[in-house]
Give the backbone structure.
Amino acid sequence: MHRLMNHKHSLAVMTAMVTALAAAAATTVDCRPGALHSLVGNPASVTSLRLTGTADASDFFFMASAMPALTELDLAGCDIAAYRGDAINGLSAYPALTIPQGAFAGTGLKAVILPDAKGLAIGDFAFAGSALETISLPAGTAVIGQGAFAGCRALTSATLTAGVRSAGYAFNNCPALVSVDLAGATSTGTADYAGCTALSAVKGTRSATRIADSTFNGCSSLTEFDFSPGLRSIGSSAFAGTSLVSARFRDSAVDSIGSWAFAYNPALTDVATPAGTGHIGQGAFFDCPSLKYFTLPSGLRRIEAYTLKGASSVETLTVPRGVDEIEPYALKGASGTRTVRLPSTLEYIGDGAMEGMTGLTAIEAAALEQAPELGADVWKSVPQADVRLDVYIGAAPAFEADRQWSRFDINTVATLVGETSPEAPHSTVRCRFSGSILLVEAPGRDIAEVVLFDIAGRALLRAVSSEATVAIDTSAFTTDIYIVRCTLSGGDTATFKTARRHG
């Protein structure tokens, strides 16, 4: 009998414990502002809390300080009232519709459902350093305070909402964060995801117009990003230290790429910038050794310092017409570049701008009517005597008289080589040989004139046309390398250098 009573007593104790745990795991409180402390009997045992009614900042700080076991918080049915009273964490007033700043920072909270209230704000560092594992912002969220979720070491995914504005550093240094859904947000905040080394998937970018400074700086697992067609600006260091393979902006309206925007990216191979990009900042593609396919946009006015420093795989670089300055060390260490084409507008090349371009074999400068001014040691370590420098014969004396230019193998060209106008890119006109017949083609356009020059700039032949294709027989000429200048009916021109192959 005694043994049976002990057994029944044990069952009763266990039943009471299970009931107590179940109650603790499902605590629901209909709150009034400032009353939560009086509505929860044993706050230290609460692990899951569903809050309805209305709460204010004092209630949030009570949860954080008096409920150390709290891991789940459901605020879906809770309104947030303004607080004004005794100072809490140094402040005597907190606004309505706001998760108070720092309220849950460093707590063990693993999951939270936020109120779906229009204009909801998440205060600065509200959940910073907490144990949150995932976060999904409701549609009404308007503001993410500075560092609101920064340093959450267990956070693996985050979903934002359209229209939300970040004050910056929102998810900074969350090492387990793997995926982010911007969900139509138009911009990011400064350094929002910087240091999130596991971040590999960013979705919902189609509405983005601005990527702020350092947004993805140091996200070393990020290999791809869908750049929005409406994107206008990319901030300084926005993608520095990532592992992006390609940065293609399609038909976007990007007009500015900030300093160091894609720097320190060992995997970046392919960059396509829109023609209208008028600013590429200092060091934008610094230390991108795999970068091979790269075109400077026609809207550029200067190549800033360190822009392509260390981009050792770019083989051909055409500096677009309109650029008047190449700043110091802009192309330093671009050791794989074999050909550089300089525009008629170029006036100055800065100190060490092309230092270490050891693979250089040709500089095409025959569009220039005068030699650009040079800074110090522009071509340091470049084997200048082995590099052919094509210059217009009228500008040759200025090149030959300059201490640095004169070290090249200067090749004079009798005629100024024209440049492709922005309205008639090379993609509009094609040149190809069929045996000894040179075919110049402009699909959908009429060719007004084709002039054929040899490599010295001597005019060999002029063909007048009103067709989309011009065929020129070159069998009578001994040269195999030609300069072809094609003028379209609207006056646009395109100039090519092409070679005739034998056998």
Notes: The radius of gyration is 33 Å. The longest helix spans residues 2-25. Residues 1-24, 420-427 have pLDDT under 50 and may be disordered. The CA atoms of residues 328 and 350 lie 4 Å apart.
